[in-house]
Model the fold of this input.
Amino acid sequence: MLRDIRNNYHKFELKEDSLTNNPIDFFRNWMDDAIRYEVKEPTAMILATSTSGQPDARVVLLKEVRDGGFVFYTNYMGQKGLQLSVNPKVALTFFWIELERQVRIKGEVQKIGEQESTDYFATRPRDSQLGAWASKQSKEIESREGLEQQYEEFERRFEGEQIRRPDHWGGYLVVPYEIEFWQGRPNRLHDRIRYKLHKGNWNYARLQP
Done:
């Protein structure tokens, strides 16, 4: 039964002497671990948004970690993009089961520069570039065939040409003000370290599990 499914975590521990002054630097260390240990989809993160008090969540891919925060790309006119235009406050969650680790991030989004979005779009596979044009993200469509027809129309439109970035597609930077690192431990006595930004400085505390 579902209630009988459980694991006792024991692989690693999270000690204060391993921490960095800036949690983004510590996140980079954990991301490096996730890649080194060949975690499946290490950059996959749950992005939670909220408007009118109703949370909404989906998985997106992290594309860059910079000193100011975390970058992802999407359709500005899709459901998440429209939600972000109303309420820029978001939450991110990473879960790396192979390492028994979780990271939770709270912050606010801001659009990155158009040239940055254009530069990144140019690095995407051509099929993904066409998909950004073909999909009216989150809008209803009658059939899969209709979606494939839209894709084929843009394939013909851009045949033999470089595909430019559509205006409705680009990047966001999540600027964090709270980051929590969770390390699974035996007997459900997990390690939790939470950083909070206060007047430009990061302070951390250990939380009970």
Notes: The CA atoms of residues 73 and 171 lie 4 Å apart. Residues 7-124+167-207 form a domain with the Pnp Oxidase; Chain A fold (CATH 2.30.110.10).
